[in-house]
């Protein structure tokens, strides 16, 4: 007599969940209220930016700006009868939205420095995490990775939508929003700034181990880096030079960096070195110069400059993160 055995049911293969686990889940749970509030604010800001973009394009089109500019080019602004009302209505709205995009990375750095890292070091709660099979480096990686991913996602969306909104009308319509005035608000710049802010915040927290001190140090460090890059920015790409017998105006389609005179030997003389009331021709004669020059970056330099500076910020962020890991490995908080 033979007997048949029933095959055992297959063992179900566990599906890997996309939900964060371990220390990353703990970081999200610790600050879930803050993350939820920030997510809601992001949705609101993105929504009003989309409305602003529609209003800008619709108003310009309904008032005939698009048709006028298509016929005569950038000079259309001088002939647009509604330019004053348009600027007073939408100029401030676009400007303040740009400031939000520009300074969100700094706020991300302050949040990382204070509530996320320094407060835990100050209160001693890091000891519990490190006794639960979590290494110091893994703990720091979670403290860096969680805000970095969330901030980069939000800032990337904000920057993309704001850049789209900024490009809705010709730059001549809102002169205060030209590309060199809005440099830190457009394209990759806010995203790279966010990386730098998070990395500086973590490093400042490890160095000070105090919430307020870490936030102050992050603010100072971020300000110094941005100021230094602002001084370096004009020299990242070779500037275009215009020379003429007549004194060139400071206002051009590009970003004017320098204006002055050129002597017969090619030596440069700063353009504002003449006394008030002296004519341009007499100013040239006083300095033995024979022509004027104007150094500027044309509009075509905008995106190359932006990507180059964003690359520098990313390198500085990587160095700050590396320094934080090295400091953590050298000793305990």
Summarize this structure briefly.
The protein has 333 residues and is of the alpha+beta class. The chain has helices at residues 22-30, 32-62, 65-72, 83-123, 126-130, 136-166, 189-208, 211-232, 280-286, 302-330, and strands at 240-244, 255-263, 268-270, 289-297.
Give an account of the 3D structure:
- With 333 residues, this protein is α+β, with helices and mostly antiparallel strands.
- 61% of the residues lie in helices and 8% in strands.
- The protein is built from ten helices and four strands; from the N terminus they run H-H-H-H-H-H-H-H-E-E-E-H-E-H.
- A four-stranded antiparallel sheet has the order 1-4-2-3.
- A hairpin with a 4-residue loop joins strand 2 (255-263) and strand 3 (268-270).
- The longest helix is centred in the N-terminal third of the chain and has 41 residues, at 83-123.
* Helix content range: 55-70%
**SS content category:** alpha+beta
Strand content: 5-15%
Q: What form results from the Cα inertia axes?
A: flat
Number of strands: 4
Radius of gyration: 28 Å
Unreliable residue runs: none
Sheet with the most strands, sense and barrel status? 4 strands, antiparallel
Labels describing this entry:
alpha+beta, 4-stranded antiparallel beta sheet, 10 helices, 4 strands
Draw up the topology in text.
Blueprint: H1 22-30, H2 32-62, H3 65-72, H4 83-123, H5 126-130, H6 136-166, H7 189-208, H8 211-232, E1 240-244, E2 255-263, E3 268-270, H9 280-286, E4 289-297, H10 302-330
Antiparallel strand pairs: 1-4, 2-3, 2-4
Helix pairs in contact: 1-6, 2-4, 2-6, 4-6, 4-7, 4-8, 6-7, 6-10, 7-8, 7-10
């Amino acid at each position: 007599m033979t007997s048949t055995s029933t095959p055992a049911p297959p063992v179900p293969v566990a599906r890997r969940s996309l939900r964060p686990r371990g220390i990353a889940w703990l970081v999200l749970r610790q600050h879930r209220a803050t993350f939820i509030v920030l997510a809601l604010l992001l949705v609101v800001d993105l929504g009003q930016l989309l409305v602003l973009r529609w209003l800008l394009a619709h108003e310009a089109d309904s008032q005939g700006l698009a048709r006028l500019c298509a016929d005569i080019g950038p000079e259309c602004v001088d002939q647009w009868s509604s330019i004053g009302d348009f600027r007073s209505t939408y100029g401030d709205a676009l400007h303040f939205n740009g400031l939000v995009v520009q300074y969100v990375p700094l706020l991300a750095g302050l949040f990382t420095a204070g509530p996320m890292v320094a407060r835990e070091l100050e209160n001693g709660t890091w000891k519990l995490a490190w006794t639960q099979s979590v290494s110091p480096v893994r703990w720091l990686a979670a403290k860096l990775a969680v805000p970095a991913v969330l901030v980069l996602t939000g800032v990337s969306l904000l920057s993309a939508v704001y850049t789209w909104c900024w490009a809705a009308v010709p730059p001549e319509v809102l002169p205060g929003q030209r590309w060199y005035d809005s440099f830190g608000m457009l394209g990759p710049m806010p995203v790279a700034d966010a990386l730098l802010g998070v990395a500086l915040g973590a490093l400042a927290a490890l160095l000070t181990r105090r919430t307020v001190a870490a936030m102050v140090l992050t603010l100072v460090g971020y300000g110094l880096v941005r100021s230094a890059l602002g001084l370096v920015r004009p020299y990242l790409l070779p500037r275009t030079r215009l020379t003429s017998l007549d004194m060139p105006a400071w206002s051009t389609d590009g970003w004017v960096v320098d204006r002055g005179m050129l002597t017969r030997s090619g030596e440069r003389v700063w353009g504002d070195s003449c006394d008030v009331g002296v004519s341009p021709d007499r100013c040239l004669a006083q300095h033995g110069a024979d022509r004027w020059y104007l150094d500027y970056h044309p509009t075509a330099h905008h995106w190359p400059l932006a990507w180059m500076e964003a690359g520098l910020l990313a390198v500085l962020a990587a160095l700050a993160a590396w320094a934080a890991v090295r400091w953590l490995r050298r000793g305990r908080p």
